[in-house]
């Protein structure tokens, strides 16, 4: 997988009041679009789970955990690109 | 004792710690303060000797008196968006529910200290005071000042204070980028910008510190993008475990004591002569992928810290 980010300088710089730094905004090609139907939260275990075929497994044991695009409220780059487990 | 874990539901890094706490048979109470009130509720009473009461979700209840430590990961903000006066209700929720959380005796890390330490101007100055080498840095909204700074140094990078930006079609990331004087334009006027001396380096170090335990990973970028900012090309990074020089260890210990942090993820550039130069500190940085890539036992250290807090 090529994980090099893709530059999109035109996305923001066309705006008259665009701050200088926005020209460096990029879309990383390696993050995944998380299908929220494939993840859930086990209230008893207090852990996230992910669908793996016809069963649910702890998210940390799922391949999706390698490159996870979260739905956090205030995500950082390193939060979105989470490589905590495979 | 119970460990309180404050984070969102989708946080695989917190899952690692919760799983380890389960394995050690340590009671855990996990919740997202953003769910207060409704999915998280509280009742606490003060009778002169500390707060007693409970905190509960639909599936778990914890005795507040049993909570000895809290792991502040990535919770959502406390906010009440219903009723006739949501701003007032939010302020009340933060004062009451948030105030009770603040009364937990041991934090990794205390959210107030993290807020302070996240400011790059604060951490750069603190790092220099602690004895670490630091790069020349300019924070400005003035294009002329930016142009002069960039022209004075052999190479300069632009670094965003916040590396993500929301957009109507998803998020974008702003990685550290090389700039020249010709690049600078009036766009600098529209907000604060940070320009920093580029450090010629052999490799970078991600140093994770938990209490007095140091976990250093050497990150060597094998692509142009990764050499400028390894976050831009994770697949081109080579990982190895590294030793921390004694002088760096002493300075980092002083830095974290000064910032009152018990955990930090820090980035260093290592020059060809072996000198470490402090670049950045994240008081709530990711560490799970470092453990995955290197085998460094960070999860165990965090769990140890949460289960054996100082009295």
Automatic annotation (TrEMBL), chain A:
Designated name of the protein: ATP-grasp target RiPP
Organism: Actinocatenispora rupis
Lineage start: Bacteria, Bacillati, Actinomycetota, Actinomycetes, Micromonosporales
TrEMBL record, chain B:
Top-rank lineage group of the source organism: Bacteria
MF terms in GO: ribosomal S6-glutamic acid ligase activity
Gene Ontology CC annotation, any one: cytoplasm
InterPro entries xrefs: GRASP_SAV_5884 (IPR026449)
SUPFAM superfamilies: Glutathione synthetase ATP-binding domain-like (SSF56059)
Signal peptide start and end residues: none
GO BP terms, alphabetized: SOS response
Name of this protein: ATP-grasp ribosomal peptide maturase
UniProt organism field: Actinocatenispora rupis
